[in-house]
Amino acid sequence: xxxxxxxxxxxxxxxxxxxxxxxxxxxxxxxxxxxxxxxxxxxxxxxxxxxxxxxxxxxxxxxxxxxxxxxxxxxxxxxxxxxxxxxxxxxxxxxxxxxxxxxxxxxxxxxxxxxxxxxxxxxxxxxxxxxxxxxxxxxxxxxxxxxxxxxxxxxxxxxxxxxxxxxxxxxxxxxxxxxxxxxxxxxxxxxxxxxxxxxxxxxxxxxxxxxxxxxxxxxxxxxxxx
Amino acid sequence: xxxxxxxxxxxxxxxxxxxxxxxxxxxxxxxxxxxxxxxxxxxxxxxxxxxxxxxxxxxxxxxxxxxxxxxxxxxxxxxxxxxxxxxxxxxxxxxxxxxxxxxxxxxxxxxxxxxxxxxxxxxxxxxxxxxxxxxxxxxxxxxxxxxxxxxxxxxxxxxxxxxxxxxxxxxxxxxxxxxxxxxxxxxxxxxxxxxxxxxxxxxxxxxxxxxxxxxxxxxxxxxxxxxxxxxxxxxxxxxxxxxxxxxxxxxxxxxxxxxxxxxxxxxxxxxxxxxxxxxxxxxxxxxxxxxxxxxxxxxxxxxxxxxxxxxxxxxxxxxxxxxxxxxxxxx
Amino acid sequence: xxxxxxxxxxxxxxxxxxxxxxxxxxxxxxxxxxxxxxxxxxxxxxxxxxxxxxxxxxxxxxxxxxxxxxxxxxxxxxxxxxxxxxxxxxxxxxxxxxxxxxxxxxxxxxxxxxxxxxxxxxxxxxxxxxxxxxxxxxxxxxxxxxxxxxxxxxxxxxxxxxxxxxxxxxxxxxxxxxxxxxxxxxxxxxxxxxxxxxxxxxxxxxxxxxxxxxxxxxxxxxxxxxxxxxxxxxxxxxxxxxxxxxxxxxxxxxxxxxxxxxxxxxxxxxxxxxxxxxxxxxxxxxxxxxxxxxxxxxxxxxxxxxxxxxxxxxxxxxxxxxxxxxxxxxxxxxxxxxxxxxxxxxxxxxxxxxxxxxxxxxxxxxxxxxxxxxxxx
Lengths: 226, 331, 377
Fold this sequence. Notes:
The structure holds three protein chains of three kinds. By secondary structure, chain B is mostly helical. Chain B has ten helices and no strands. Chain B has helices spanning 5-34, 42-79, 89-94, 99-123, 132-158, 173-176, 189-213, 217-244, 263-283, 296-325. In chain B, helix 9 (263-283) packs antiparallel against helix 10 (296-325). Residues 166-184 of chain B have low confidence and may be disordered. Chain C folds into two domains: 2-58 and 230-376, no CATH class; 64-223, Barwin-like endoglucanases. By secondary structure, chain C is an alpha+beta fold.
């Protein structure tokens, strides 16, 4: 359960270009549910995702992750929580060129200090589950869009997080790939993962996987549908 | 002034360390003044990120300090031929008033920076950084000492003048200058040995108790400092004599030479390491009641005490081995 | 503990992979870095070798030399002085020495002529240094003509040539018999060049020197220690000057390193952004950068030091020879043994690696503090 209370995020505070991306949002997100933040670009949904995902700290308000209040944690501890709790899928694949698909997927586990052999085993299993097993040793430059997307999913899952955060995950995928992606998400939800997505793609927020759609505009919650 | 490649290297080293310290000062000041973890402001974020810079700079400074400590002794060793009557590094350092103060300050700074890193390590384990103001104040106080060290060292090297033959006349410096003493013999031999083994024994004994019981770290800290001091004095007064097998050459530096199988490195590294970790264990004690640190500190203290114990035992063992093996018999 | 080592291993792994991917970008830096280390190490090794060479050589020299001075100039000294010296308590032995210089107009070089203590050189023959034999294109058995003090010619046969390994000072050396030496320079029987004194206890050297100065007011005393010290000072001073000159290039190199480190490519910046987004912490990235610096330093330092070692050992520091060896017209052609010790490597470390590291810490930190959510914007 994630509890968000009166969260605000201001960029460039005190400067002429001050900009309030989130202007006071309160929200509860339940475990093992799929929630979509929907809204036009610039509405603040990505910022909200980054606040929930411990990537940034709100300027005001409080966020509780389970029973832990995370808003006043320094970056070092935010990161520690983040890498164990959240898996991220971004709008772009954001893979590192020159490395193989598998190596890319293993990167989040590197700083955790697990023996490489163990991480690798887990990675290969994920690749098999996602049907990209044969691509494990290919350089990421040679992957198709759909394969790259699956590699990023494997990367998001490598530390076995409870919550998957996906920011506009289908923006660069065609319809077939998008559907496949939603199917994978459905499977993950079935396994007990919590999903938090941002999207303005009907394929996403109308998908049967999604439990809840929250409409965000100008840094505020506009409406909500179950 | 002497113009010697290793002297230049030492200048370069201390200038670099001073630069690191000076560069760390403004952000340290900022952290000390403006730290507010509850704020989500951009300023707080910037300050938080600067703490990474400061720790990194100081970690490097620590490593460089350790290395240059030995290079300093080496250089003094190499320079001894320049000065009439100087038999080794001990003599070179006596040539002017800055030699030994620089060395002592180097040792102190090494220990202090090491302690800072221990405190920093602990503080970084607790999500609310409970020691942050204290540790940065500590650094603000420590910084001038490092800069002073650079100044003292420059003073030492700049005022060195080699006793070199000039073309004009005979060159009997020797007569105008009294012989540079080797090193003073602080303590009479027999009590020195007794004191050394007593202090070491008590320190190791109390350390084992503190390690098992998880308390008494402060006393161990004090004992470690005492053991460090007594050991250094013992090296002067009898350990070196046994190693050199000469009843008169009480030099703490020649131990580092290849003739003595570099035994000095083992001795000094174990001693400095033991002293640092031993003292480090105790200075954490006052903070063990802070909520965020209640678990971290006792665990770390155990590790530090264990490390100190191993190093002290190693030191004592090497010393004892050298004494037993030595052909020298001191009455 | 294990986890911490694994973490370092994993980060190091990534760093090396990243460096290999950007080989070309770092090639120039490593090359310049290697060159800098090479130059500095050559100077340090070479001046140290010369110093040691001189020290080894002087091991055989007398502990004290007594010279007579007239009007502030070195003069021949009467053998009669020996008696006075031998009477001083603590003097073990004293003897007269005969040596001098001879200018050979054929090759334009100065030879050092010396009468050896043992009578190993028969009259009419000589033993010469390798440099001299090379210059005169002579071999054992050849005659070399000398012009004596009165203008007549005197021929001496080469009986032996010292091998080049003997080093710095023997290169221009000529050992002759006493008769030949006196004949060549027209030196009276009762005079010698200077006196060599041996004492029983080295600690008494200064005292004895002082007593000699009192007994023989027109002499000066030179101690072996002092010659050694002077050699040391000269060689090290030259080394120091060269390093000071090289410090300009070190500075340029530091600027290059700083520039390279702060001018990260877009690609690299994006990569660090990705790493932070997927869960790497600022400290992890700094750690990575630290490994990167270490890898680059080692890649440059080891070859630089090895090349310098080869430069000193194989070519006798061909690049710096004229500057460092100095005065001799007849360059000794000898291969010096480079002496390598920890302090030299430590000195090089402070002259090259530490400045490089310091120049990259701050840019690395800047790179590491990218916002984790930067890739989402």
